[in-house]
Amino acid sequence: MNTLNRIGVFDSGLGGLTVLDAICSANKGLSVVYFGDTARVPYGSRTPETIIHYAEQDVRFLLSKNVEAIVVACGTVSAIALEALKQEFPIPIIGVIEPACDAAAKVTKTNHICVIGTQATVHSHAYSDYITSRYPHLNVSGIGCPLFVPLIENGFREDDPITKLTVDRYLSPIRNTDIDTLILGCTHYPFLYNVIQETLPDIQLIDIGVALSEAVGKMLPLPTNISDNFVEYCFSDRETGFKRFDTEHLRNLPNGPIKAINIETF
Ligand code: DGL
Hints:
By secondary structure, this protein is of the alpha/beta class. The protein is built from twelve helices and ten strands. A six-stranded parallel sheet has the order 4-3-1-2-9-10, sandwiched between helices. Strands 6-5-7-8 form a four-stranded parallel sheet, sandwiched between helices. The radius of gyration is 17 Å and the shape is globular. The site of D-glutamic acid has 18 residues, from helix 3.
């Protein structure tokens, strides 16, 4: 008898839902525990030590739910803590950096890629280190966009003038350069996909959730012919943010129970 593949997916907040949406669109037969650390978001302005500590607690919570594999649906945790998590926990753990960089390397024609992300992600050089080691002919630039996550977590939509102004402020410097590919290196950023594309109409955007979903299919423990997905949504703060959240970008997520959990106990 086929059973559902039980995986854990986590992020500092709501951004990982964009990754989960892509995973659910590309894969069926999943039983997912999603954890968004909404009480402690953002991670991207914190020290590596704090990010690793938070990520360890997030993984321990998911392991308590008996998941068989974990998707780090957070650019910041993937950049700072992935290796530490892989060494500490004896379970398949996948991050977003390698699939996103591989997807960007495939499409660039000018050989100049830009990565946008949180301050912690850009300062870690995790994306650029992977790209230059794997694809030495490519140039990589990086821009930290620390205001994007607070805007998104606070429900600012893409068509809000403040959102548009903020996107323009960070990204207009790369308009009319030889950069032709932009990695949205933070899982919150697909919520700004349309406004970023309007700001940079000639640049190909790489959504890391889409890039990751194929890799997730390959790591799933079991073959299954079950055609539905089941998701339990867990948050460390009140779930109201998720309820009022713009779901235009989350069309593939099934309904499921929403739970508040105390992450400090893990
Ligand atoms: N979604 C996280 C990421 O991909 C958000 C960062 C944050 O919490 O600052 O980096």
